[in-house]
């Protein structure tokens, strides 16, 4: 049976067919749908962990206990889980273990454009790189048998266009997989210096064997055509090259992205006058070739930045121009993402902007609080940094200055790595104010449950982390819950808490407007009382726009949340059914 | 020969469902197909672009400038923005709706005037009031399926095949509304 599947869904299918029974992940675009699709297989235990490090450790534990296990993350999530990854490389596996990482060239939904292939080399964990959905499934299955054969975790590296493209996949039955026996093995599983020294020797032996395997690995495919040009490539770049260059060049496609073969590359390169390496982001294959003394053309003609396209490859390799197209003379306004109509964060940022506070921001929909007209957020670094970086700012400029400073962090992000920063504030006598934007869900990645929502990944009821009690437990005396749509009260609460001489937390509580349980109704309209002050336009609501010198509300977009009614100083906006 | 179809719109307009119906329909015709979507941040009211490519064998999932045989545009400004991607002689179907992007709302940019006329001067354009038709079908959210209906008419895939995939793709309680929406577009 064949089915049109997202690359991510195909990875999930591969895990299912390979007999995987434990999957733990933290959501992150473009990796999220792998784990969401795992949920459709009742045979597999699936969970959202609080962060990628925890998720990877759950998968590692499952592998040690004898199960085939998986953990999935976006590229920056791999930074968070790198600690256990580097050490489980030494431990190896009992049941097969696979980490899936999805890179985001072009940064469709990310804060940086790092190339995760470096992690394979750095942690000495072999990496496979599929280029379409069928390969996503096949490579995932193969990764499990190789993982057990070579006693190593494997990494599957995806990128946005592989993860989020649908293509045909041949479905197969699930393999029966019996848990491997669990045996106590201190030398292998307890990584203290004396044991790790010995395991490092095994890792180097393993790498040598894997390099040998790379010479004959069925995923490293040569495709010889007429012509004097050879192309070495992998992943999605192979598809771009193939579309652009067709049968005019020959290919060496490296499905095993690390370690790479040596003899195979040398032998391939010898056959051609010119060899191009086509790879998005960093020159990983290129540097490997150059270290082997193989002359290749790579980043001297191809960019280090963003996504590639077939057109740019055609232009560089064949010197052919792009097809004729209609160029526009008129300047077209951009359409950046915005907070939705009814978004609870809008109320928070309206107040923070009005008070002129410095806002230490974080990762989530609320990063959009940096965009005009709210333009409230000052910094965004990584998950959790809003809290800890604000402590650093306060320590640099003093307590008085930090009374004009707040951190904003979502409920899921706070669980991920905000709580440790808050502990730092309490422990090291900061007086910071942290606003937890509690919208009852993990919003940006498309509504995943988290420890504060009271539901598991399968929607089952579970113990819910009590944010208020948690903050109090780590030593914050001033913890308050406020509704960001009640702007007057919310403003007063922010003023009070930022002035306090001790740490404080404000839990800004209002659910995401896109949740099915949120039922705003009717819509808001401008009445004749409007004095055209345009205060409502400062909200940056997509439903409100200028109408001559006045204002209009687009009824197709307005969901009647009523925030604009609350900010209008002249009671000129009315809610109608 | 690969056929390239681009679906452009604003995050939240239902472009993903349109691409799924299209993808599943061409698969049933026995073609190789790739559908490339964008998830995550850009879905939050930003410009969204989906590529659907089908043929004997499809390699790259993306469509470049001058390569789209058909563009299905859910909004006027996004239609205009996508025009350089249309192949010479290609066809663009536009849902005649204007949604202001934030730079227009804040007043730093102006929404271009008479977009549909300008596009019609440069390309083979069909302009549809899909919002009205969707309301007529019984659900404003079925704009996407109205547009699929309009597009279906200009492919050589039979009517019944489209209906079959709609039934397979949308939740059961929305099947009737969506078939009605498809018909309104198809019979335009």
Write the layout of secondary structure elements.
The complex is a heterodimer of chains A (577) and B (188).
Chain A: E1 2-6, H1 7-17, E2 22-25, H2 32-38, E3 45-48, H3 52-64, E4 69-74, H4 75-91, E5 97-103, H5 117-123, E6 127-128, H6 133-150, E7 154-159, H7 160-163, E8 165-170, H8 186-189, H9 193-216, E9 220-223, E10 229-233, H10 235-245, E11 250-254, E12 256-258, H11 263-270, E13 274-278, H12 284-291, H13 310-318, H14 345-354, E14 358-360, E15 377-379, H15 385-397, H16 399-402, E16 405-410, H17 411-427, E17 433-438, H18 467-473, E18 478-482, H19 487-499, E19 504-509, E20 523-526, E21 544-547, E22 550-553, H20 563-567, E23 573-576
Parallel strand pairs in A: 2-3, 2-4, 4-5, 5-7, 6-7, 10-11, 10-13, 14-15, 14-16, 16-17, 17-19, 18-19
Antiparallel strand pairs in A: 1-8, 6-12, 9-11, 20-23, 21-22
Helix pairs in contact in A: 1-2, 1-6, 3-4, 10-13, 14-19, 15-17
Chain B: E1 3-10, H1 15-28, E2 32-36, E3 47-55, E4 68-73, H2 76-82, E5 86-95, H3 102-105, H4 115-122, E6 124-128, H5 130-137, H6 143-153, H7 159-169, H8 175-186
Parallel strand pairs in B: 1-4, 4-5, 5-6
Antiparallel strand pairs in B: 1-3, 2-3
Helix pairs in contact in B: 1-6, 1-7, 5-6, 5-8, 6-8
Descriptive notes:
Chain A is 36% helix and 19% strand. Chain A is α/β, with parallel strands linked by helices and 577 residues long. Chain A has four domains: 2-216, Thiamin diphosphate (ThDP)-binding fold, Pyr/PP domains (Rossmann fold, 3-Layer(aba) Sandwich), CATH 3.40.50; 220-318, Rossmann fold, CATH 3.40.50; 345-509, Thiamin diphosphate (ThDP)-binding fold, Pyr/PP domains (Rossmann fold, 3-Layer(aba) Sandwich); 523-576, Alpha-Beta Plaits (2-Layer Sandwich), CATH 3.30.70.20. In chain A, the strands form six sheets. In chain A, strands 3-2-4-5-7-6-12 form a seven-stranded mixed sheet. Chain A has a six-stranded parallel sheet with strand order 15-14-16-17-19-18, with helices on both faces. In chain A, helix 6 (133-150) links the parallel strand 6 and strand 7. Chain A starts with a strand and ends with a strand. Chain B is 40% helix and 23% strand. Chain B contains eight helices and six strands, in the order E-H-E-E-E-H-E-H-H-E-H-H-H-H. In chain B, helix 2 links the parallel strand 4 (68-73) and strand 5 (86-95). The relative contact order of chain B is 0.16. Chains A and B meet through strand 1, strand 8, helix 10 and strand 21 of A and helix 1, strand 2, helix 2, strand 5 and helix 3 of B.
